[in-house]
Amino acid sequence: MINITKMNDVNITVNADLIETIEEIPDTVITLTNGKKILVKESRQEVINLVKCYKKELFSRFLKED
């Protein structure tokens, strides 16, 4: 899950596994696998970095348990 900010300054949490595409047109639009689109304040690269950090944290837990 990643925390992002909608254009109306509302913070929301999105399941990173449901992200299908991230576009900057010029604002950032996240399209989920169910077709829902979310307009956010973060840049495309910031969203990508949030997803990377989330995945890294998630998978590091599995490595520590083994």
From TrEMBL:
<keyword id="KW-0282">Flagellum</keyword>
<keyword id="KW-0966">Cell projection</keyword>
<keyword id="KW-0969">Cilium</keyword>
<dbReference type="InterPro" id="IPR009384">
    <property type="entry name" value="SwrD-like"/>
</dbReference>
<dbReference type="Pfam" id="PF06289">
    <property type="entry name" value="FlbD"/>
</dbReference>
<protein>
    <submittedName>
        <fullName>Flagellar FlbD family protein</fullName>
    </submittedName>
</protein>
